[in-house]
Amino acid sequence: MVLFLILFGATACNYGQDDANSLIMKQSIVKKTVDNWRVYTNPAYRYELRFPLNWKVTDSGEDGKDVIFYISGATDNKPVLAIKSYSNWQEGYDLETFYSKTKNDLFKTSPNREEIKIDGQKGIWFKDAQMEGEEGQKLNVVSLDLDDRIVEILIIGEWNDTRAVVNSLNFYPNKAMDDL
User: Fold this and answer.
1) Is residue 15 packed enough to be buried (19+ CB in 10 Å), middle (13-18) or exposed (0-12)?
2) Closest CA to 156 of 134, 123, 132
3) Is residue 147's pLDDT more than 50?
């Protein structure tokens, strides 16, 4: 009986809390965190997310390939989050094949990785990845294979806010030809 009370009490104390070192957050916590944030929608690669009011966003325009988030008024103007999207409908690469064809083969250079799910989509979280052009800086990179597109998220700073942004991602499904 005492063991039951100890185990039940420990579980009850942790209920609703979140592991700050994990990328994945409980959706109830995400919803509370992003409640009053702004919404960014990328129609080209069919996703949306929420981001803090004190962030600004720039993107590459209609092609939607590159999206960069900064903290407004920061003197260094360094990005805190970047999203790169790649068309994959012709090639149909899985993530490992995709990276083997790039300068940043994260499967070879980033052994510390974890399989994750964001908005029901399978992905890989590359922890402390070294990306070309980011010498000396280790990044958390989230890569998602969405069949006809690959979305790569570079978490550069502001861990708590960027985790909430990543967990707020909502991917739109592919439209069937009948729906067009």
Assistant:
1) exposed
2) 134
3) yes
Q: CA–CA separation, 144 vs 127, rounded Å?
A: 14
Q: How high does pLDDT run on average in the chain? A: 85
Q: How far apart are CA 37 and CA 56, in angstroms?
A: 12
The number of residues making up the chain comes to 180
What confidence tens digit (pLDDT) does each residue in 43-59 have? 999 999 999 999 999 99
Question: For residue 74, what pLDDT is reported?
Answer: 82
Phi and psi torsions of 103, nearest 5°: -70, -25
* Residue 173: DSSP 8-state: P
- The whole-angstrom separation of Cα 179 and Cα 89 is 18
Q: How many CB atoms lie within 10 A of CB 72?
A: 10
Looking at residue 175, its pLDDT comes to 58
49: left (phi over 0), alpha (psi -120 to 50) or beta: beta
Of 115, 117, 113, 116, give the one whose Cα is nearest residue 128: 113
- Which residues share a beta bridge with 42? 47
* Tokens describing residue 119: 């908005």
The whole-model pTM stands at: 0.83
Task: Tell me: pLDDT of 4 over 80.
Answer: no
What number of H helices and E strands is found in the chain?
A: 5, 10
